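User: Before I run my own analysis I want an independent prediction to cross-check against. Here's the chain; please return only the structure tokens and, at the end, one sentence I can use as a sanity check.
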Amino acid sequence: MSKPAANIWLIRHGETEWSRSGRHTGTTDIALTEHGRRQASALAPLLSTQTFDLVLTSPMQRAVDTCRLAGLGEQAQVEPELHEWNYGVYEGRKTADIREETPDWSVWTSPIPEGESAAQVGARAQRLIDRLLGREVGHVALFSHAHFLRVLAAVWTTGEASMGAHLALDTAAVSVLGFEREVRVIAKWNLQQPVDQPAR
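Assistant: Structure tokens:
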């Protein structure tokens, strides 16, 4: 059998204007804010203590820039499966606004016209997990997005994408998936590094 990935580090990109305001950001390529850039740079000391066999990043600029500012840009490979949930007609909209038209709407349980369902995102996460477990890598870093990383962790532990609804994830947060003996676990979740504030 192939050696399983011992640790998979999940790094959400830094703050953007849309993440700050709560707008669903899937296919729109939004840049990091200045605060988001500081958040990404603050990850460098932590990540420099690790030796990664494989570094993958979403193709979206906010993830690529976070990876670069965190010090792993030269090692990174773009991985299309790491792109954020495709929100279809809800792209750029806030949940509260959508619920004015569709009460009780949830990305986790509601139809997403012209986008991806939770099951489809879960299948994408499972494909990526299967590929990682089939490679001879022990330490992996993945730079991606909130909803996709929540789905990835949910599928890793339970096989159910919808369980990601219970895993809140902040910008520039670091999480770690791994094994306890043969059982897949979330070893760390939603850890944040202190961010230096700009001089006044």
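Sanity check: The first strand starts at residue 7 and ends at 12.
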